Amino acid sequence: MKDKHFIHIAKKYINNVATKDEKRQVDNFYDAMQEKHKSIPINLSFRKERKIKNAIDSVIHKKAHPFNYKNLSIAASILLIIGITFSYSLLSINPITIKTQMGERREVLLPDSSRVFLNSNSSITYHDNFTDERHITLTGEAFFKVTKNLKKPFIISSNNTETKVLGTSFNINATNNNKTIVSVNTGKVLVRSKVSPKNKVILTKNQQVTFLNQTPIILNNTNSDDLIAWTKNIIVLNNETLENTAKILENWYNVSIEFKDEKTKQETITGKFNNETLKNVMTSIELLKDLKIDYLTPNHIIIRKNP
Q1: Is the keyword Transmembrane helix in the record (predicted)?
Q2: Within a 10 A sphere around the Cβ of 16, how many other Cβ atoms?
Q3: Using 50, 70 and 90 to split pLDDT, how confident is the model at 151?
Q4: Alpha carbon 274 to chain centroid distance?
Q5: Which among 1, 57, 101, 306 could bridge 111 via Cys, Cβ 3.0 to 4.6 Å?
Q6: Whole-number Å distance between alpha carbons of 30 and 71
């Protein structure tokens, strides 16, 4: 994001005339700075300090609406950028990381207006200015809606793979350190190994690739809607092992699930759960697979064979 653009939307934010997307961009920037406890070392003369203070005071007194601490911080940032030629891009020298906790899903608006939907227990790291190439590092799972820019490819690093696009929507699942799954909802993407760049594949709509030990396995004619159903709070299980299902549910509901025997882990299940409670999901699995499910605590579940 350029200095002038940031100043423009920050001013709109303070005046309560910013759009929803513009407010989210300013909030993301402010939250990232707060999370990193970033301080900006600037040596100002007494005269400049007084000038900035007076300018902030004048902004506060002009506003009829309440002026909270965040607005004050944003106003100060604008004045620093304008008054002492402090470049906003300098704030983006260090990477910004946005992370979700277990049981949390979040939408992130990037500076280029691309959108990222982060699944539970996942994170993205990026440079706010996106200088030469728009580059994101992903841990976990995310669905991307990338704003088209032919001059600036959008690149996502995850595990040992790299996904490159110009403008499209797709899902990347890198929750397993040894496996990365990329599925395309619209457009076209290039996925390649970072270890062996010649090991690459191009995907189009409804195609999916799994990189396992750097070897791509293409699965054609996948249902891309099912692969991104989680962005709509829908859990889709397609012949999934109970072991993998448990990992999905642990992240989704922030719980711990244990199995009393190894054999049960390898049983498979197919189903779809639309915004269901954990209790309903576990009851369905219990009935479908003829299992016994016990709750040691509301967040600690034991799965065993039905006696």
Answers
A1: yes
A2: 11
A3: confident
A4: 21
A5: 1
A6: 10
